[in-house]
From TrEMBL:
<dbReference type="InterPro" id="IPR052016">
    <property type="entry name" value="Bact_Sigma-Reg"/>
</dbReference>
<dbReference type="Pfam" id="PF07228">
    <property type="entry name" value="SpoIIE"/>
</dbReference>
<dbReference type="InterPro" id="IPR003018">
    <property type="entry name" value="GAF"/>
</dbReference>
<dbReference type="InterPro" id="IPR001932">
    <property type="entry name" value="PPM-type_phosphatase-like_dom"/>
</dbReference>
<protein>
    <submittedName>
        <fullName>Magnesium/manganese-dependent protein phosphatase</fullName>
    </submittedName>
</protein>
<dbReference type="GO" id="GO:0016791">
    <property type="term" value="F:phosphatase activity"/>
</dbReference>
<dbReference type="InterPro" id="IPR029016">
    <property type="entry name" value="GAF-like_dom_sf"/>
</dbReference>
<feature type="domain" description="GAF">
    <location>
        <begin position="62"/>
        <end position="213"/>
    </location>
</feature>
<dbReference type="InterPro" id="IPR036457">
    <property type="entry name" value="PPM-type-like_dom_sf"/>
</dbReference>
<feature type="region of interest" description="Disordered">
    <location>
        <begin position="1"/>
        <end position="40"/>
    </location>
</feature>
<keyword id="KW-0378">Hydrolase</keyword>
<feature type="domain" description="PPM-type phosphatase">
    <location>
        <begin position="231"/>
        <end position="464"/>
    </location>
</feature>
Amino acid sequence: MPEGCARGGPALPAADRLPPGPPLESPGVPRAAGPCSCGTPPGGHRATAFLLEAGRRLSASLNTRRCARATAELAASFLADTALVVLPADHARRSAWLRVSAGRPGLQEGTVSAAEASRVPGLAEALAGFPPVPSRWLDPAQAPGWLLPPGSGPAGHLLVTPLPGNGVAAGALVLARRRGGPAFHDDIEALAGLFAARAGAAISAAALHQEQNAVNAVLTAALLPPGLPSIDGVELAGSLRVAHQAARIGGDFYDVFLPAAGDAPAASGRAAAPLAVLGDVCGKGAPAAVLAGQILQSLRALLLVERRPERLAALINRSLIESPAPDSYATMVTAELHRAAGGRLRLDLAAAGHPAPLVLRADGTVEEVPARGTLLGLLPDAELLPAAVDLAPGELCLLYSDGVTEAFGGPAGREMYGEQRLKDALATCAGMPAEAVVQRLEQLGTEWLAGGEHDDRALLAIRARPR
């Protein structure tokens, strides 16, 4: 049996109703004797106004339920005493329905099983996308009780038409007139078909939009910066600002991978250690984000068998060179984190075509780590010059992408931020927690841009926790 509920709500707002005048074949209004002088069917001007109003309201939303509600409200205001929109069945073979009745406030909605829906004459065929059956062939006495609102009495006339969608029906529209009211004549059926085509296109577009949004949300969630793990004796903080904020994803990436049982040993031969990575791929937006995600997934798999920075870079380089996608280039910097005696932190660093990491000492001195390497995806043999750095408690290492230093701004908006400004800004952050350092640098970079366009920008701060 169907499940339904009545939801209170306003009837069709006065502003959304048609201008005064007898609607074409409205219930209770006698049918005109013949065509008007302009050659249109009786009430043709009103029909045109109705279709224009339908187009306006149906195009105002990309939400499936709102489009279905607008369809039912419009149909009940002009075509029938009761209008019911039935949507395609879900995986449980149940169809959602929305019902509006003229003169009754609010919207009723619920769900119905496929078996119960098939009891409505012509509904199963309409949901399958078949052409509508003429109203005079449908027996309203066969309509189940759930089709009409309680207390409305039996239906005198039924009209069921598909809501054409994108290759498949977007649902079905059921129109009912009370017993004793005018029948659905050919001109009304034709008008209902025109209206259903507009409504079906709107509902189908809304459903496609919502489906694409759901897919995008899943993909975006997989490409967003991760929550950084907690590591004893280490502070971690990161920031990612993409070039196109509306997309929320871009070509810069960072992550920190914790070792798991059975992981390959560290480059030094010691037990596997946490590995921080920050990189930048060629391009912007979704294509760049997809490539960045592929690199991160590749690293996650490679770390099960390999942790040497030069080998990781070589394997990523090979995969990019063999990629069928054009412009598959990337820069990357990695840092293995090893805790040492006295609360110190040793970082084994390697950079492939990436800006050199910066170290902030306790006295405010900023040092550039001499880690160098070849851009990934450019040459068959990627060469790396690794480096190591020791951090005393409270000292910090900053990994960053070139979008930070290549940001154009300043008084005229045409000056590059540059490495020296970044070093000077970092020097003022001595003694600050990693999170505060990242926030400070991000704030200064945003102020420099002054709302101008920018590339993706990524920061990752690694600090030896003060004792």
